[in-house]
Amino acid sequence: MARRLIRLGVNIDHVATIRNARGGAHPDPVRAAELAIEAGANGITAHLREDRRHISDDDIERLTAYLRGRERPLNLEMAVTQEMLAIAEAHRPHAACLVPEKREERTTEGGLDVARQHSIVAPAVQRLRQAGCRVSLFIEPSPVQVAVADAIGAQVVELHTGAYCDAVRAGEAEVAAEHLKRLTEAAHAAAARGLEVHAGHGIDYATVEAVAALPEVVELNIGHFLIGEAIFVGLKGAIERMRRLMDRARAPSSYGSPE
Ligand code: PXP
Questions:
Q1: DSSP summary character for residue 216
Q2: Containing domain of residue 85, as a range?
Q3: What sign does the dihedral 76-78-81-87 (CA atoms) show?
Q4: Looking at the domain assignment, is residue 2 inside a domain?
Q5: Ligand 1 atom at shortest distance from the alpha carbon of 225
Q6: pLDDT, tens digit only, all 259 positions of the chain
Q7: 221 touches ligand 1 (CB under 6 Å)
Q8: What's the pTM value of the predicted model, to 2 decimals?
């Protein structure tokens, strides 16, 4: 299989988490977006949650203006609600990624169950596509979820890597191998249907290479680890190292022949 470039989307939600701990304007997620792009991020991801616990409406407005001015993509993560759909239609981000959302969760704990919720998700996909957004569905790496995502008109699936990353961190090699197998098969099935394949959640330096080595995956979205690591080495250093690991995993010697 020909080698394809892999993009890095940096999720800056937790810059806003730190800002919101004290109120005020510092640290500013837009400044983080600027630094992330300088350090090699291809785009910026932000999740406007219903409870606005990190990114705010004003952040989305400023990020949209900033990134549009620099012709860089904003990937807006959002729940499937009328409020979020209206916001996405007003801002028309380059990409919209539909995610499940529960108020009591700390982070997006699982994928969107599109197989069960297709009657709610399908019209949302259509509305976002009509607004000019590239629509992605954040799903578990399962053949059923991939098939339904395709059937309801999504252009992209983002495969949830959380279970794989958790297993690696827990030192559970067999469980991790099983999750990686699921990711591998789901990526393959999605690409075979003509869907663009992204992956994300819980990725750190120890897990990025295995995910980036999946040839069908063309974008990774990484947030919490990079923002945490930035405390020690700076955002630029953290992103540059992640980028190097992604590129190493993608090197021709890792698989296949270069294009
Ligand atoms: N992709 C999606 C769809 C997400 O919801 C998140 C978390 O907001 C991420 C990627 C990034 O996950 P993490 O912050 O664990 O790197």
A1: T
A2: 7-250
A3: negative
A4: no
A5: 16
A6: 555 789 999 999 999 999 999 999 999 999 999 999 999 999 999 999 999 999 999 999 999 999 999 999 999 999 999 999 999 999 999 999 999 987 667 776 789 999 999 999 999 999 999 999 999 999 999 999 999 999 999 999 999 999 999 999 999 999 999 999 999 999 999 999 999 999 999 999 999 999 999 999 999 999 999 999 999 999 999 999 999 999 999 987 654 443 3
A7: yes
A8: 0.95
Separation between Cα atoms, residue 202 and residue 4, nearest integer Å: 23
Residue to probe by mutation, ligand 1, list 77, 109, 227, most atoms within 8 Å of CB: 77
| Ligand 1 atom nearest residue 203's Cα | 16
101 lines ligand 1 (CB under 6 A): no
- Residue 257 included in any domain: no
Catalytic residue among 14, 77, 179, 216: 77
77 is catalytic: yes
14 is a catalytic site residue: no
Q: Catalytic residue at 47?
A: yes
Residues in the chain: 259
Question: Does residue 72 form part of some domain?
Answer: yes
CA atoms within 13 A on the CB side of 172: 11
Q: Whose CA is nearest to atom 5 of ligand 1?
A: 108
185 domain-assigned: yes
Domains of the chain: total: 1
Beta strands in 7-88 (DSSP E): 7-11, 43-47, 74-78
Which amino acid type is present at position 73? P
Distant-in-sequence, close-in-space partners of 92: CB < 8 Å, separation ≥ 6: 131, 132, 133
Rounded distance from Cα 77 to ligand 1 centre (Å): 9
Q: Residue 209 sits in a domain of what CATH number?
A: 3.20.20.70
